[in-house]
C-alpha cells in the first residue's frame, strides 16, 4: 500500500543529500585529518596512529564526548546549556566525596551524582519553560550559582575514588579505552533515542519550530525539560568519568577544560544546526574525534597552545561555513 | 465513532456566550456557534472580526474568557491543542504549521507518531500518509520528501492531510484555500464532501464567497467580534451576506478598467527573460494598465515576479525600463528603479512582525533609500488611511493585527516609495471582501496615476475582473495572452497547456 | 481598536519605554540601596565613580546591543578587549608620542575584527555564535602568539588619561573623562537607533527577508553591527587599559557579562526587540549590583551565586511579567 | 589497565598536603617553612637555582645512562606570565646543554585530564627522564605514580604530588614562608590595629592557599585588623575596583597583602586616584611593581616564588642521568626583595609582567629572549 510511486522523481536528490549528510562529511574530514596528520607527524619522525596515539585520541574524546552527546540533544531543540562545565566539577565532587574511597559506595555514589545532575537539568528546564527565560541566560545563571557554591564550599580537589572505580577511567582493551567504548555506547543509545523513538522525533520537532510542535499537540515544555535533564546527566557521567581518572573530585575540572563552549563547538562541528532541528549524535562524535585528533597532532608536532587556539577557532569557522555552503547548494 | 444517525437537533459542538480579550481589547463578545455532524458551517466576516480566534478557542489554542464550549453534550475546557485533538477536534491553521526539515509523513503524524515495540513505526506512518494523500488525489507528494522542498500549495495539502489523519469528529479549517489554485480548490471541494458524508462537522473560514456558497449548509457572520447572524446558506444571497459582513451594501466589486490602456508608454519590457525556473519570457507593462498573470500553481508566476524584482533575477534576456536597458540583480536595484514587489508570503517575507505599523510602513523607504532618499515627504497617516488599515495606532505591533490588516501594511510600505512599476503577488490572499474592494480600488487608482501593475492571483474571477490584459503561464513559459475580460475557460485552457496562443 | 490614526505624543513615549521599565526599576532600587549601604553614595562623587567603573561595560553593551538586536551574538568582545590592551602596550611601549597613532589604530583593529566577524557571518552564512566563538579562540591565541605568551611593553600616561582621570566641574566635583565619553556615546547611540539605519537593524533581527526584499542591504547592516561592536570593544579596552594598566586578563569573561547586561535590559536574544538605553541600563545595573554586594561584604562565592539568581529572576520577570506590564501601558 | 599500581602502604601524604575540604593549614609544615627561611643553602651562592636547603641526598646510580638524552616535560599550562617566564627560562636552560638531544614538551592547557594522558603518553615514548609540573596536586598523583612505575626517573617541580616516588621534588620553600614574610613585614609597618586588605588570586590552588593561611595567622598574632580578603582573578581592573570599594568603605587602609603581584600596580593606583598616600604593600618580583617601587620609593616588600626554579628540573634531570646524587626534596632558597636589593632584580627594558627572579640574566639570549 505504501506504493506511492511519485517518489521516483525525488529519489536521486534524496540519495545525493544522504551522501552529503554533514555526518558523512565530518567523518570524511576526520579521515583526511588522520591522513594529513600521519604524514606531518611522520615527517617529524613520529607515528600518529600507534597504540599511544589511538589511546590518546580516544581518551581525550571521552569526557568531551559525554558532554557533547548531552549538548547535542539540547542544541537539537534549539537551546544550549552553558552550565555543563561547572556541573561536571560539581558532579565529580559529589561522586568522589560520596565514595570516599569505599568500593561499597560506588553504586550509591553514582546514583546520587546522576540524581543531582538530573536535578540541575530539571531546574534549567523549568526555568527555561516555565519562567520563559532564554536558555542562554538560564543556563548561564545556573552556572553562576553552581560556581558560587563551588567557590564557597571547596578550595581544591576533594573526596576519594576507590581503586575499583578508577578502573573505569584506565581500563582498556588493546588501544581502546573501556570508557571510550562506554561513551560510544551512550552515543548509540542517544542516536537510537533521537532517530527511532517518539521522544526523539519530538526533540527534532521542537527544534524545528517550537510553535508548530506545540500546535501539533507535542508537550514542548516536557521535551525541553527532558533534554536538559539528559544533558545534565551526560555532564554528570563526564564528571564521574573525570573523577575516576583523577582519583578525586575536582571543582574546576570542567571549567578549566572549557567544556561549556567546547562541547557546543564539537556539536556544531559535527554538523548539528545551532538553531536546532537538524543534526545528530553521530556527527557530534565525529566532531569530538576531530578536535581530539587535532590536539594529538599538535602535541606530536610540539605546537604551542596559542597556535592551537588559533587553529581550533579557524577550523570551527571553516567547517561550519562549509556546511552552510553545502546546504545552500542543495537547496 | 459514527454519527450518521444524528439529526439537526443535536449539535456536536455548542459554543455559548464566548468572550475573549487580548491585551484588554475584546476581540470576541458573547458569540454563539453550533456545529452539527455532517454539516459544513461557514464562518465569515471582515479581517479582524475574530474568526480565527473563535476557531482557536475551539481547538484549545486559546482559552475563552467567558462562555462555554460543549462537545457531544458535555462541557469541555481544553488546556492545549493536544487535549482538543484527543477529543476529536482538529484544526487547519490560517498560517502554515509545518516543519521544513521533517518529511511529509513526520509532519502529518507530528505528535502522534505510531509506536511499535518502543520505536516509531516509520513504515506504517509513511504508508498511512501515502494513503491519505491518495485519498486527496495528491499523487505528486512523497511521504518521505522534506516539507522544505514542497511548493506552497503542496504544503497546504499536507496541512489538510495532517488534520484529517487524526480521525477528527470536528474539523476546523481557517482559509484552507487561500494558497490554492482553482483546480486544487476543486479537489478540496470533493474532499470536504466526502468528509461531510463521513459525518464530520466542519467549521470553514474563507473570504472566498463562492466557496462559502458552494460548500456550506450554514453561515455565521461575525463583525467586530460580535455575532451578526447565523442562517442556513439557502436563506442567504451573496449580496445579503456581503451586507451582513460589511454593514453596508457593496457596489460593483471591481472598479472600471482603464479607458485606453494601450496608449500608455511602455514602462517595463522583458525580452527573452529566463533563469533556472523560467524560459523565453517576453512581456511589456505599460503605464496605467494592470496586467494579470495567470497560471496553475507552480507554473512560475511568482518566479516571474521574483525575477523582475531582482530576488531571483533573470539570467538571460534583457530588461528595459522606460525604454532603457537596465540590469536588476537585487531587490534593492529593482526598488531604486521604481519597481515594488508585494510578495505572496506576508508572514515570511513581508513583515517584521514585532515592529510597529510605522516601522513596517517605513521599512522599504528606509531600507532602499536610506538618508539620501530621492523621495518626497511622507504623510504616514494619509498612507495608512489610503490602505484602510484598522489598527490601534501606528505604534501597534504588526503581529497583533489580523491577517488582512497585515496585508494592508505590506501594501502601505510599498506605496511609501511611490513606485512606477508595481508587482503584486496574491495581494488579496486572506483579506475580506471589504478590504479586497479597497485593494482593488487602490490598485486601479495607482494605475490611473500612471503606475504599471503586474498582478498575480490564484482567484480567477478577481484576476479577470481586474486585468486589462491577462498573460497565462504554463510550466515556466508564457503560454499566451488574452484581452480584457476573458472567460475562465479560456484562461484554464492555456494554463493547462491545452493550447498555445501567440502573443498579440 | 478602531482609530487608524497617527503619531500621538503619548504613543511615542510608550515606544521609548518599551522593555526599559523593569530594568530601570531594578536599577533605581539598587541605587537607593547603595545610598544606604555606603556613605560614599550620599554624594555625586560616589555615583560618578560607579559610572566610571561601569563605563566600559556600558559601552560594550551598546556594541553588543547592535549585534543582538539584529539577531546575532558577539562572543569575541572579551578576548578582543584583552587583545587590544596587549597590542596597545606592545606598540606604545611607554612612548608618549606613540599614543596619538596607537589609539586610532586600536579603533581600526576593533573595526576590522568586527568586519571579519560580520563578513563571515553574512557571506559564509555561519551562525554568529560560532563565528565569534571561533574569533574568541583565534584572538586569544594570536595575540599571545605575537607577544610570546604574556603582555609586553607599557602604556603611556597619555593613553591612560581617559580611563583614569577626570576634570573638575563646579557642583559635581571631579568628573571622569570616561563618564563624559560614555555620555557622548549614549547620545550618539540613541540618535542612531532613532534613525533609519537603527530601525533597520531592529527590523533585520525581526525578519531579515522582509528587509532584504525591501531593498535593504542586510549583509552590510549586520556587518555594520559587528563592526560597531568591535569598535565598542576597542573603546572599552582603551578605558579598561587606562583604568588599570596592562594585564593579560582584562577581558576575561566580559563577553558573558555584557550579554547578560544586555539581556537584563530586556533586549531579546534572537533580535527584533529592545532598546539601546535599556541595554546600557542593564550594564549599569549589573555593575551597581557588584558594587552593592561588595559594599555589603558578600563573599566571592556568594557573589556569583547571587548574580546568577538575579539575572534569571530579572529575565523571568521580564518575560513572564511582560504581558501584564504591556497591558497597563496600553490602556 | 593503565591504572597505576596501588600505592598501598606508601605514604599517601606529602608534607604540606591535606585532603578533604581543605583547611589548608598544616602546623608542622608551617613551622618547617618558617625555619627554612633562615637556613643556609648549600651550593653555589651565585646560582640559587642550584642551591638546596637542608638537602637529603639520594643515590641515582640506577638511572645512570649515556647521552645524548631525550628529556620530556609535561607542563600544566603556560597561561600566565609567571609560567611564561619560567617556561622560557627552562627552554633556555635546556638549550645550554648539548647532551640534551631532544627536549619534548606537552602542554596540558590547565586540564588535569589532559595532563594525565600527556604523562601516560610521554611515559610510553622513549624519554630518558620525565619532568612534571602538575596542574593539581591530588589529581595528578596517580599519573605521576604510574610514570614512576615505568622506571624512568621522574622529576616534579612547582606544585607537588601526594607521593614520594619521584626522584626529586623541586620547589622553593613554599607558600607559608611567602605569606608569613609578607605578613610580618606588613604587621610591622601598620602596627597593631592597623588595617590590612588581603588580595588573592583565586581559591583552590594549594600554593596560594598556603600563602594566605600563613598570613592570616601572622596577622591574628600581631593584632592587625584584616578588613577583607578578596579574589581578583589576577585582573588589574577587578583589583583596582575592589580596592576603591574598600577605600570607600573603610576610609583608610594601611597595608595591602597580595599573594600575586600582577595587580599590585593597579592597586597602588587606586590609592593615587583616591588622592591617598600609597600604603605599605607586599607584592612579587614583577617588573612593573619593582619599577614603580623604585620610582616612587614605596614602602614595599616582595617575597618571591622564584621563576628560576624552572631551571632546576633540567639540571636535576641531567644530574640524575649522570648518576649524581640529588636532594630527594630539593628546596630552593626563596629570596625576599626589599629596599636593599631592589636594584639587583630590576633590569630596565623588561616587559611589565617579567619576573625579576628568573635567574636568566646571564643566560645566552638575555634579554631579547625574555622580552
Ligand atoms: N495573540 C493575539 N494577541 C493580541 N491580539 C490578537 C491576537 N490574536 C488576534 N488578535 C486580535 O484579535 C482580533 C481578531 O483576530 P482574528 O485573527 O481572530 O481575526 P480574523 O477574523 O481571523 O481575521 P482575518 O480574516 O484577517 O484572518 C484582531 O484585531 C487581532 O489583532
Ligand atoms: N524547482 C525549484 N527550484 C527552486 N525553487 C523552487 C522550485 N520549485 C519551487 N520553488 C520555490 O517554492 C516556492 C513556491 O513555489 P511555486 O511553485 O508556488 O512558485 P511559482 O511557480 O514561481 O509561483 P506560482 O505558483 O505563483 O506560479 C517559490 O518560492 C519557489 O522559489
Ligand atoms: Mg484569521
Ligand atoms: Mg505563487
From TrEMBL, chain A:
* Superkingdom classification of source: Bacteria
Q: What is its main location?
A: membrane
Task: Identify the keywords attached in UniProt to this record, alphabetized.
Answer: Cell inner membrane, Cell membrane, Membrane, Transmembrane, Transmembrane helix, Transport
**Any stretches that span the bilayer, and where are they?**
24-45, 57-76, 83-100, 106-126, 133-150, 170-194, 224-244, 306-324
**Presence of keyword Transmembrane:** yes
For membrane topology, the record states: Multi-pass membrane protein
Annotated localization: Cell membrane
User: Which Pfam families does the entry mention?
Assistant: BPD_transp_2
InterPro entries this protein is in? ABC_transp_permease (IPR001851)
What this protein is called in its record is: Autoinducer 2 import system permease protein LsrD
User: What is the species listed in this Swiss-Prot or TrEMBL entry?
Assistant: Prauserella endophytica
UniProtKB/TrEMBL annotation, chain B:
Q: Which InterPro entries match?
A: AAA+_ATPase, ABC_carbohydrate_import_ATPase, ABC_transporter-like_ATP-bd, ABC_transporter-like_CS, P-loop_NTPase
Q: Which GO terms describe its molecular function?
A: ATP binding
Q: What keywords were assigned to this record?
A: ATP-binding, Cell membrane, Membrane, Nucleotide-binding, Repeat, Sugar transport, Translocase, Transport
The organism's superkingdom is given as Bacteria
Taxon lineage: Bacteria, Bacillati, Actinomycetota, Actinomycetes, Pseudonocardiales
Q: Record's Pfam families?
A: ABC_tran
> Which source organism does the UniProt entry give?
Prauserella endophytica
Q: What is this protein called?
A: Sugar ABC transporter ATP-binding protein
Residue ranges of domain ABC transporter in the record: 13-249, 263-500
UniProtKB/TrEMBL annotation, chain C:
Keyword Ribonucleoprotein tagged: no
Q: Which residues form a coiled coil?
A: none
Topology in the membrane? Multi-pass membrane protein
Task: Provide the alphabetized UniProt keywords.
Answer: Cell inner membrane, Cell membrane, Membrane, Transmembrane, Transmembrane helix, Transport
Where in the cell is the protein located? Cell membrane
CDD domains named in the record:
TM_PBP1_transp_AraH_like
Domain of life of the organism encoding this protein: Bacteria
Q: Which residues cross the membrane?
A: 21-41, 47-68, 98-117, 124-149, 169-192, 224-248, 254-270, 277-299, 305-325
- PANTHER family xrefs: ABC TRANSPORTER PERMEASE PROTEIN YPHD-RELATED-RELATED, AUTOINDUCER 2 IMPORT SYSTEM PERMEASE PROTEIN LSRD
Query: Which protein are we looking at?
Result: Autoinducer 2 import system permease protein LsrD
The record lists the organism as Prauserella endophytica
